[in-house]
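>> received
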Amino acid sequence: MPSLTKKQKAVQSKVDRTKQYSLLDASKLVKEISYTKFDESVDLAVRLGVDPRKANQMVRGIVTLPHGTGKTIKVLVLCTPDKEKEATDAGADYVGLDEYIKKIEDGWIDMDVVITMPSVMAKVGKLGKVLGPRNLMPNPKTGTVTNDIGKAVQEVKAGKIDFKVDKTGIIHASIGKVSFDAQKLYENANELLQTISKLKICCKRSIFQEHCYFKHNECRN
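>> returned
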């Protein structure tokens, strides 16, 4: 087993593995154990105990973090010409349609979120093979396929994120930067957890089983 570095030992000395930290205490601790020279992202991992291979246990949703993620989000809006000014005024970084579809097909992916309109999904749909694996494909469930382009752009810029359970039943999401004060990290983390707790999850092993939509007997046992 490789030996720990001086910084790793310093981090371990601050963490009591026998203690269950409150969300606020954990938010404070994150700031104490950061030793990097850059502003690290703070991620929250929530183990749900679901099996995402089953349709009724696939968990995904959206949440607007009260203090944003601390990241500069590049937004691409694929829309008709009459919506371009609305998108630009709302703060979109890239606005257009056919020219950006061509760029994406050629390998360009310099964006973090793609927003589009229902009327152009027939064109955008063919980008699924490129955008899908990168979790960039617009989806009505995450609010990225809408006619209210301006509102969608503003929400994303303000800290709206979408989350989805991975194949092991865990949700991973960024809730800020180490430079955030502990209270802001706590409030962002709490907002995400509260949003997850309100989802209708069906699984007898889920930590949120009281919100089961299907009301199966196995969920009550």
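>> Confidence is low (pLDDT under 50) at residues 209-221.
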